[in-house]
Amino acid sequence: MQLYDKDLLSMQEVRELVGAAKKAQQELAEKTQAEVDRIVRSIADAGVRNARRLAQMAHEDTGFGIVDDKVIKNVFASRGVYEYIKDLKTIGELERDEEKKLRVIAVPVGVIAGLIPSTNPTSTALFKAEIAIKSGNAIVFSPHPSALRCISETVKVIRQAIAEAGANENLVSCISIPTMQATDNLMKHPDVAMILATGGSAMVRAAYSSGTPAIGVGPGNGPAYIERTADIPLAVKRIIDSKTFDNGTICASEQSVICDADMRPAIQAEMEKQGAYFLNPEERAKLGKFILRANGTMNPEIVGRSVQTIAELAGLDVPASARVLVADEDGVGRGHPYSNEKLGPILAFYTGTDYKDVCDICSTILHYEGKGHSFSMHTKDEKIVDYFSKRIPCSRMMVNTPSALGGIGASTGLMPSLTLGCGAIGGSATSENVGPLNLLNRRYVAYGQCELEDIRKNVPDCSDGICKVNPAPEMMDPKMVDEIVARIIARLQTVN
Questions:
Q1: Which one of 251, 259, 362, 422 is the catalytic residue?
Q2: Per the database record, which ranges form the Aldehyde dehydrogenase domain (predicted)?
């Protein structure tokens, strides 16, 4: 029987891809750490060699971002990730504690379903392929339909690199007929052990409700606080560099700038000097109606577009020199469109009465959208850093660095990653920058250290119906401690 229906064909393809991936993963499970590392190195080298070609294809397919910046992301996702994970122990025995007689063995989860977004299509595919294989797994990609061509080409590059390293190229594969049914079947397939979901909120929710263990990430909406001790020109440079990198398609990029009210004139002047265009009330209202759809979600037409393109689409006339659009915002939530995530060169601008008020405003913004994701600040005062780190509902807090690059680990010591966990508060299974160690199970081998009789000896005296608890020494009265020590000394002297 020959199938012609697109949905049926896509579902049949999923079954075949998962079956081939399972076989390839079983072969990978027999390889040593050195053999696995050789495969990952081959993928990393291939990603760097093809970084510009794949970046150009991604830009052509989606219209998002800037080609030169996408080259950087492809190199980061290939070589940057590899350099960070190359020495990680992920195969076989991970730990051994001779004193506790405990061993920890790495166990691959098996076949992973990888959802690939249109915002960072080629770099995400390279990144997920590396961390999946590094942890001993195979991965099947479900590509965003608008980026199918560039993702498919990236997978072709990866598969060739795997073959050149002497492994089964079916360790990485991609659906060629992307449909909702195909993605749903992939996530629910009995041989898929885990879902690595990067994409829109609806897709991430679908991954978590599929019944298959999933690591997903929520939206970013990170505020950036310029505190009064900051180097203002440098802070503004970092923020604008970050927000304009690949036209704001990285979810960790700044979505709003906030400062103490008395700092507003100096900061606005510096932002304007560096290419920020502050909208007047009429322009602010016009763009505000354009950046969100009727249902309150982000208008995809602003994603990854240049300032000039967004201005033209919204009917605005802005200077050709404008690098980022800035709108004053005085509230959060419905009716305040600039308080939402904006994956384009658009920033909200808030002010607070002092750092405590600023902290409250930033927390409110994140609780509305982006909780558990990212927050950044620019300051020379470590006490302010401590204050915010104890209160802001985020998983990663960047200090004195471009948030987009800091959040993914390009300009900070975080795990280089294009999948940023949001923790329990953000509905994610992890608060980490996802890496290989998130994609394996740990098998604990524990040796016996005592017998039941030994355990019984440690049971307290319960003869009075209430079990006696010996107080900790630090909880005892000093006089009582002295009396106990005196009795012990006297008893030892009697024995002697």
A1: 251
A2: 11-273
